[in-house]
Amino acid sequence: MTADCYFCCHIFIGEKMIKTIKKYKAPYLFILPFFILFLVFQLIPTVWTFYISLTKWRGIGAPEFVGLDNFRKMLIDGMFWEALWNTVVYWLTGLVLILFLAILIASLLNSQLLKGKAFFKTATFLPNICAAVAMGLIFRMLFDENVGLVNEVLGKKIPWLASTAYSKIPVILLIVWRNTPWYTMIVLSGLLNISPDYYEAATVDGANTYQKFVYITLPSISNILLFCSITLTVDMWKIFNEPYILPGPGTSNTSLFQYMYESGFNVFNMGYASAIGVILIVLLTIISLVQFIVRKGGRETVS
């Protein structure tokens, strides 16, 4: 193909793109603000984070390129591994408990036997709109070793926030209490979209409640559960407020996101904090891909 042909092709493609943009200019204008905000507040900061992770920088002055030194330091940093382990504990326990409670509560709210659904839906969602700091202070009082209500009910003097054996329990309970309502509403929206005809047909065939739940309800909301698991995974790996408000002895409750913040804004080691951020991005990407693959494999097995 000659140079003239290439030139003509480029002109044709360019004119076609211009015509397409002119034809659909209104939709493009509507989505333009999103892409501008995404570029300014997501893409550029992410690229900048990857660059800073390869430097030594204290937030002012010119960054000094150090290559992979920050990542090498991470391998021998005991605090990093402790924060990583704490985050894994928060993630796994939170994921299981929140999804279990969300499905359970959503099923109860969707029950035909429940009266006053509007009231119970509102009451269920209230913990999600309460300020995290205020709820953290309340939980701190509830789990106080000397005057806490929890110890009064149990009749024991358990050092919930002063012992490494118990310090994560109040944090996990606060995480579950604050996040369950949001995911309950999402699961409930999926349950409301299931046609009653499926359950009526199953009843005619002699299916019991358990069989209806396993073979109708769960498959019907599987995509919603996948969405919940991915968004919940991201939320759990970015957990900050709860372990910050309910600190255990030393660094026993410190999350990876919290350690990244402290490295950047307390120690002013922006390069190392950015390296932790890069590790978070990589881990979340891998976990999300695994969840997609598992979901796809499960769908193929069922089909």
Automatic annotation (TrEMBL):
<feature type="transmembrane region" description="Helical">
    <location>
        <begin position="122"/>
        <end position="143"/>
    </location>
</feature>
<dbReference type="GO" id="GO:0055085">
    <property type="term" value="P:transmembrane transport"/>
</dbReference>
<dbReference type="GO" id="GO:0005886">
    <property type="term" value="C:plasma membrane"/>
</dbReference>
<feature type="transmembrane region" description="Helical">
    <location>
        <begin position="158"/>
        <end position="177"/>
    </location>
</feature>
<dbReference type="Pfam" id="PF00528">
    <property type="entry name" value="BPD_transp_1"/>
</dbReference>
<protein>
    <submittedName>
        <fullName>Binding-protein-dependent transport system inner membrane protein</fullName>
    </submittedName>
</protein>
<dbReference type="InterPro" id="IPR035906">
    <property type="entry name" value="MetI-like_sf"/>
</dbReference>
<feature type="transmembrane region" description="Helical">
    <location>
        <begin position="270"/>
        <end position="294"/>
    </location>
</feature>
<keyword id="KW-1133">Transmembrane helix</keyword>
<feature type="transmembrane region" description="Helical">
    <location>
        <begin position="213"/>
        <end position="234"/>
    </location>
</feature>
<feature type="domain" description="ABC transmembrane type-1">
    <location>
        <begin position="84"/>
        <end position="291"/>
    </location>
</feature>
<keyword id="KW-0813">Transport</keyword>
<keyword id="KW-0472">Membrane</keyword>
<keyword id="KW-1003">Cell membrane</keyword>
<feature type="transmembrane region" description="Helical">
    <location>
        <begin position="88"/>
        <end position="110"/>
    </location>
</feature>
<keyword id="KW-0812">Transmembrane</keyword>
<dbReference type="InterPro" id="IPR051393">
    <property type="entry name" value="ABC_transporter_permease"/>
</dbReference>
<dbReference type="InterPro" id="IPR000515">
    <property type="entry name" value="MetI-like"/>
</dbReference>
<feature type="transmembrane region" description="Helical">
    <location>
        <begin position="26"/>
        <end position="48"/>
    </location>
</feature>
<comment type="similarity">
    <text>Belongs to the binding-protein-dependent transport system permease family.</text>
</comment>
